[in-house]
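Curious: why this fold?
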Amino acid sequence: MLKVCSMEAENKELLIEGAKTFGIDLDERAMEAFELYLKELLKWNRKINLTAIRSEKGVVLKHYLDSLSVYPYLPQPSSILDMGSGAGFPGIPLRIIQPGFEVTLIDSIRKKVDFQRHIIRRLSLKGTEAIHGRVQDNGILRDLGGRFDIVLSRAFSDLQTFLVVALPFLKGGGTVISMKGEVDPVEIGRLAGAEGMRYRLQKTISLVLPFSPLKRTILLFEKM
């Protein structure tokens, strides 16, 4: 069992109740994992700029719950590539709640990948890998091309670039999921149908994060 300093009771309640809005019941194992992740993130962040969010409550609302918001749209089991994963979001929270996910994280910033690997070790997240590199690199494409059911990102470049670079990593019929702020659905539809995109806009989900005014949009694009 993990031994960690407990999350503040108020923030623990926000995480538990917020997760329920996405159909997730967090058990004791998951809560211990989230608490250790939080403790390590805040500790590392004092020395290394992993995230601009530096409060416990901010991490719970803007990182944890934002990451979990995509959970209802992920088939289980799935192989998932998280592009531009930063401090591990959304890939690590999704892996914490669902051992059936096989998660690969990739980021071009070494210190962020070092942190991801540290968390993966501390939480014993089997089937989870953190890779340092750029998705455009030939070696990355060679090793990871065509391997994933899902390619997702919260913060990787603009949408058009993300769709282009994600394509070769998907299996046939795979799905790209982009987690954004507020967007114009009409413009997104035009982009998906543009020449060379090779996607169908499958679904657009608009939501407000629990206990927060933050508006989010989840875009699902199916590889054709």
In short: The chain is about 40% helix and 25% strand. The beta strands are 78-83, 101-107, 128-132, 148-153, 170-180, 199-208, 215-223. The radius of gyration is 17 Å.
